[in-house]
Design goal:
Blueprint: H1 2-15, E1 26-28, H2 42-58, E2 76-78, H3 92-102, H4 105-126, H5 129-133, H6 135-151, H7 153-156, H8 160-178, H9 182-215, H10 220-223, H11 231-248, H12 251-265, H13 270-288, H14 295-302, H15 308-330, H16 346-349, H17 356-368, H18 370-377, H19 381-399, H20 411-415, H21 420-438, H22 441-452, H23 456-466, H24 472-482, H25 493-504, H26 514-523, H27 527-533, H28 535-555
Antiparallel strand pairs: 1-2
């Protein structure tokens, strides 16, 4: 009987979507692998909890004691008394409790009617001859509505990736109606898809490589060397480490890694928020001066507007200035002049996965060698990224062969953890902008800007300011469609300023970059707190960076490097 009850309880624990009542404050963490290594499947965790309870009850006739704490403490995190969960952990139970407490049928009905009305309006427009006669107006309206949905995604509770994909499809449908023929629209779509797929495959490979390194705790090698506890010194150390880390990785991944580190170095306080803001500014600045550090710089590099050596030489100094100025100003604040910080024991308790250093070396080597691969073979950069991913895939399969408990360290599991919806968002945005370019709308906008603002430096600076409010990916994509290489040749000051301004301008508001949004969610930072405490520093750094770039170009100052002597780098 006890055995039957045990099996039944274990099965219920594995199938139940919620945790036992005595462990209601424990949630399964879904942290980046930089924080947790070796998670067990949720069903297996629940089965163990159920069977542990059964073993206790079958060995005694007394009332069964409450379930014992989980045997894998590193896989769990205690929620606070309000039920709030770490933003990176599983929100299944917390979100369901919130849903039950705040469910409003009228809101769902209103959303359903809104979607239905929008679909009807779209269907009516598609079948209306007005679209064919007024294609440009129709496409601008569709783009404006779609982009409004992206900007106000939090208010509308619509994921921006879904909105972007829907907008892209609608724009190409309108384009097919207004084009001289369907064959012309299909040819334009094929050309746009070929260009967009290069960026998507590049991002897919890069994100997977970073995730694999993260799973092996590879970045622990970097974070373990941060030992200072002086608030002012720590401010500079965090900024400099993030700056160079973001140049190799992307700014979003660097932000997640560094903010996770801050949680172990500094207790919750205003000072920790300030350090998180430094991470955002440093990540955006560091990603601007290398072709693989930011998605917008990658877009410009893949499409030939910039080359590797020239972007690094031209933007390193402005990027460093855009970080150094905010750091110097923040060093004067009261938060940076407080008492020394005590570190948490969590940092020393984490262990690097087996062969973590090997995976780190191969992963970083794969990322850094992509420009070299492009220069040597002439193939697009995404092929070099896929080559690195293939090598790392075979390597992890080989070193973890037969280790069933380390399946999460392999590429298939990493693919399930990467930001797929972010990739789909880029896909939708780039396809949407491609439709506007095919219709000639972006060319008309470029002509208008040239007539109104004849100075390319002012246009680039304005785009950087706009990127603090509007996502920089569509801004850069639109700029690439507005100006071709005949207007501004490769590695011209205009394209380098676009790369710098679009990358660093997003730091002025917390919603202006993926790094800022990640920091906002992880640390529960308020929009107005960031605007009040950080935006002025970021604006000063942004302006100083632009001025340093213009001064360096006029004085012919660039980053000295011996790489120019290597024959295959200049053409990369």
């Amino acid at each position: 009987m006890a055995l039957s009850f045990c099996l039944l309880a274990g099965a219920r624990a594995a199938a139940s979507p919620s945790l036992p009542s005595s462990a209601a404050l424990l949630q399964r963490r879904h942290l980046p692998p930089a924080v947790v290594v070796g998670p067990l499947p949720q069903a297996q965790q629940r089965w163990r909890r159920g069977t542990r309870f059964c073993r206790a009850s079958s060995s005694s006739s007394s009332p069964p004691p409450p379930p014992a704490p989980p045997e894998e403490p590193q896989d769990y995190e205690l929620l606070d008394t309000t039920g709030n969960c770490d933003p990176l952990c599983s929100l299944d139970e917390v979100s369901s409790q919130y849903f039950e407490a705040n469910y409003k049928p009228k809101d769902d009905l209103l959303k359903a009617l809104t979607i239905f009305a929008t679909a009807l309006a779209g269907a009516a427009a598609i079948n209306h001859s007005w679209v064919a006669a007024n294609q440009d107006i129709a496409m601008v309206l569709v783009f404006a509505v779609g982009y409004a949905g992206i900007i106000f995604e939090e208010s509308l509770a619509f994921n921006k990736s879904g909105v972007a994909i829907l907008m892209a499809v609608c724009l190409w449908v309108v384009r097919s109606i207004g084009a001289p023929s369907t064959d012309v629209a299909v040819q334009e779509l094929s050309h746009t898809t070929a260009e967009v797929s290069e960026i998507v495959f590049f991002l897919l490979g890069a994100m997977t490589i970073v995730e694999i390194v993260d799973a092996h705790q590879g970045f622990k090698l970097v974070t373990d060397n941060i030992s200072t506890r002086s608030p002012k010194a720590l401010l500079w150390v965090i900024g400099i480490v993030t700056f160079f880390l973001s140049a190799i990785l992307d700014n979003l991944t660097s932000t997640i890694v560094m903010v996770s580190l801050l949680r172990k170095l500094v207790p919750p306080s205003e000072y920790r928020k300030l350090l998180g803001a430094v991470v955002v500014i440093a990540a955006n600045a560091g990603g601007a001066w290398t072709p693989i550090g930011d998605v917008t710089t990658t877009m410009l590099w893949i499409h030939g507007q910039i080359t590797t050596l020239n972007i690094m030489q031209g933007l390193f100094i402005p990027s460093a200035v855009s970080l150094a100025v905010p750091l110097a100003l923040m060093s004067l604040t009261s938060e940076a002049n407080g008492s020394s910080q005590e570190s948490s024991s969590l940092l020393s308790s984490e262990q690097m996965a087996p062969r973590g250093q090997l995976v780190l070396a191969v992963g970083v080597g794969a990322l850094v060698s992509v420009p070299v691969f492009k220069a040597l073979t002439g193939l697009p950069p995404f092929m070099g990224m896929l080559l690195g991913l293939g090598i790392l895939w075979i390597l992890t399969d080989a070193i973890h062969y037969g280790e069933t408990e380390r399946q999460q360290l392999k590429v298939p599991q990493a693919l399930s953890r990467i930001d797929t919806q972010g990739i789909l968002f880029f896909l939708g945005i780039l396809l949407s902008v491609g439709s506007l370019e095919s219709a000639g709308i972006l060319r008309q906008l470029a002509n208008y800007l040239d007539a109104t603002i004849p100075n390319g430096d002012l246009i680039a600076s304005a785009i950087g300011v706009a990127s603090a409010i509007i996502d920089n990916v569509p801004l850069v994509a639109a700029t690439m469609g507005m100006y071709d290489l005949t207007s501004y040749p490769q590695d011209s000051d205009f394209w380098q300023l676009i790369a710098f301004c679009a990358g660093t301008g997003g730091s002025m508001l917390i919603i202006g970059s993926a790094a800022g949004v990640a920091f906002m969610g992880m640390e529960k930072v308020d929009f107005f707190w960031y605007t009040r405490k950080v935006s002025g520093f970021a604006l000063a750094g942004y302006a100083a960076g632009i001025m340093s770039y213009l001064a360096a170009q006029n004085l012919h100052i660039s980053l000295p490097t011996s790489l120019a002597e290597i024959p295959f780098i200049p053409g990369s």
